[in-house]
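Could you please consider the sequence and fold following this short note?
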Amino acid sequence: MRKISKTAALAAATMLLASSLAACSSNNSSNNATAAGGADAPGNSGSPATAAAESKPDLKRLSIWQSEDYNTYPVASMLQEKTGYKVSYDMLPQDKWGEKLNLIMSSGEPYDVITTYNDMALYSDYAQKGALVDLTPLIDEYGPNIKKAISQESMDALKIDGKLYAIPVVVTYKVNSSILIRTDWLEKLGLKMPTTTDELTTVLKAFQEKDPGGNGDQNVPLTIRGDLPMLDNLVGAFGMPNTWNDVDGQLVPRLLDPAYKDYITYTADLYKQGLLDKEFVVNKDATAKEKFTSGKAGAIIVHWADIGGISDALTKNFPDAKFAFVSALKGPSGEAGFSGNAGFDRLTFVPKASKHPEDAVKWINATLEPETFKNLAIGEEGKTYTFENGAYLPILPAFNDERNLSNNYMSGTDEQNYPLYWQARARKNPVQFEAFDSLNNQLPDEYKIQNILGLAPYMPEYAKNNLQLESMAGDYTIKLIAGADTLDGLADFQAKYKAAGEEASAKEINDWYATVNK
């Protein structure tokens, strides 16, 4: 390979959210009533001819952060033409988006559609507090395309007390991230790509001591962002690739996993030796990437989808730079692997503050009309993509100009066909595709260890406690790695962790796991 390339919610916002729900509800007494005038027939697919003949309200949508204005990107006008709905788009911030969303939900701002990254804790909290519209009757009346596109398994996994409050975008690939390493530095030092944690340590020491980047005491062997306590690939080397892993037939969170001590010992030693960025605690995502692309760092942990931008920035500074993802590293006990995605990437819901809940569902339904969704996903054949030998291929640069950000406009996916269309998205940047390919296609299936909880049904204790537990574990792990705390206090912290909801969550999770682990 030559080149390849989401804490705790604000307490005040949560209290404000609870106090505002009654007002939201009173504004939406007709959520399940048929919209007056110009309503779609139940079977309408949102064709342009029908859409043009109707009077439809303008809708307001909030979605995840993206680098360009949603309102001016080509997909927005295409969807308006195909569905007949004019949609005004706003976006969440790139960092701490959950906190911002809590404030928005608390304020009762009348968004009709909200799309976020998958966060079951937030989703279930909003649903249980009455902040979301039950989509079940609306989909039954106005959502034939939704029913065809979204599998019953996906719907069931999102139901809370038998009601559906969100439409999912399913994940389309298994592995997200690994250690990206400067292979030209390896070549310069006569080193091979590391295959074990011991070999990784050796490589990082060589980066530090022999300074292939010419940085002197500014050299950073491995950099990461500050909110990344569980390092992809390394946690797999210690048998903990997922947030909860099977230990003797029971699902156990990482903090209570017997291998947690070994993982901390290894990563804390990297930090102590200066092999892990001494400033990682304060690094933002952009900071860590800048260190890598400026030539100060020899390795970084990143998502494969970031490789295109990283490649452009690095090669601008160092035209001959080469890099590749480190494959699954084997740990001291021979374990290796990555978390295998299962479940959902994003969730779309209709808040109770919506002024047009029925039309919101009609619009989502129209975006999932098969040909409209295909256009949304990959554009027009001969213009933005071609179909050759059973594969969808992007036409560049047209695909990047018109459909590079199209996945951010999806409110759900055609689960049967999207994985096929997605081939074009994965190939929109050759360097990025090579990165994706190395982690997903070339990586043996044995190293893609499925996240068992990915498609688990709604579990109230787990949903209620998970956000706090993950925050506790993450903050504590970072302190341990950075030497601000020691493993001497692990037992005491584990007791606090259990009392904070882990015991109730674990019982619920393993009662369910016993039904599927037969």
About this structure: The radius of gyration is 24 Å. The CA atoms of residues 196 and 329 lie 5 Å apart.
